[in-house]
Amino acid sequence: MANQFDVIILGGGPAGYVAAIRSAQLGLSTAVIEQEKLGGVCVNIGCIPTKALLHSAYIANLLKESKDFGVDAGSVKTDYGVAMKRSRRVSDQNSKGVEFLMKKNKITVVKGTGTLQPGKKVKVGSDVYEATKAVIIATGSRVKGIPQIGLDINKTTVISSDEALFLESTPKSLAIVGAGAVGMEFADIFNAFGAKVTLIEALPRILPLEDADAAAELVKVYKKRGIDVIAGAKVTQAKVGKDKVTLDVEAGGAKQQVEAAVVLMAAGRAVNTENIGLKETGIQLTDRGFIKVDQNLQTTAPGYYAIAADARPQGQPRRRARCGAPGRPEAPRHPLRQRAERHLLPPRSGEHRTHGRPVQGEEARLRRRQVPLLGQRTGAWIGRDGGVRQDPARQEVR
Ligand SMILES: Cc1cc2nc3c(=O)[nH]c(=O)nc-3n(C[C@H](O)[C@H](O)[C@H](O)COP(=O)(O)OP(=O)(O)OC[C@H]3O[C@@H](n4cnc5c(N)ncnc54)[C@H](O)[C@@H]3O)c2cc1C
Which atom of ligand 1 is nearest to the CA of 15? Predict the structure, then answer.
């Protein structure tokens, strides 16, 4: 049957397309269903374009400081629109690279929105695709605002990373809500391109999930560059005007207002679990709305699996949360999964690893002089001086 495959994968992001390649390598007939562009968030509106923009920001900062190095580059003019267009080219090239990998591995790509059906089936438009072995759900996540406090993403004055990556010019001033990796990256980028940036983090320090020493270094660097960093600060209410937003912020018992032309929401993402037929197929969610999976990432419906590229092994809450919350492991993890974890997942903060392999000797010494912080899996590193470095070995799509 033309619409029958051993394995069908819903979602062509880094989780889905890598699973598809592995499945095809194991000799299984494989199909990937993708509603937008292959490569998912990471390639199209995530890791790749932000790393391209960070590189532009790095060049801008370097040129601004070049006089100190005995190189007078004259007055430095930046143009976010040009940098943005370059980042789009880099993303598109990478997405085409994923397309090529699909062809090379003889994987069928179905364009459209898929809905799960009982009997290991997925419906796309009027077509139904059937898997004989497994359906893998890899639908990823999307941006979200905080409507409860007036921060709905309106795409003009309140934006997300999705919009920030397509702006033609830098806003005059930008308040970023959330100082995780995404918020930190955009603070660096927009500061380099001339915006007055205020970074607001609810938890006691920026980069709450990363190494504390690294975070402390970055606060110093960011402040030196003129970025206002307010940690331990809760945005309690937002007043969204036509061309400015006023945020009520509470920090350390004191209240203050932050005004900016644009607010960028970088305080978490929502998982894509709605309207994909989970209920109809008997796939249960955890209390927190994530897909429940067992040690082998099988959902509560036999034959349906769920994966996320940024899922963590059990015992590490963030990754577990994104792929489901299976509770304490009762059996050893599946060997294939252990291998995948070693090769695909980023190092834990403070560890010096590359490509999942512990680094020793001279390489470890060199690595220790850099902070493996942002964009770990795609190869962006922040040096002690705050400069972003690319790891060329990690640029290719595997
Ligand atoms: C600004 C930004 C910067 C980032 N930088 C980094 C970084 O430097 N390093 C890093 O490791 N991570 C980074 N990330 C995180 C990274 O993008 C994600 O971890 C990764 O994309 C998750 O991959 P995924 O395949 O699980 O999901 P996604 O990439 O979200 O892919 C899911 C895919 O499924 C498709 N889909 C959803 N529902 C359906 C449906 N019903 N039918 C068909 N298709 C569907 C979507 O269109 C999407 O293409 C960044 C994220 C952002 C937002």
Answer: 25
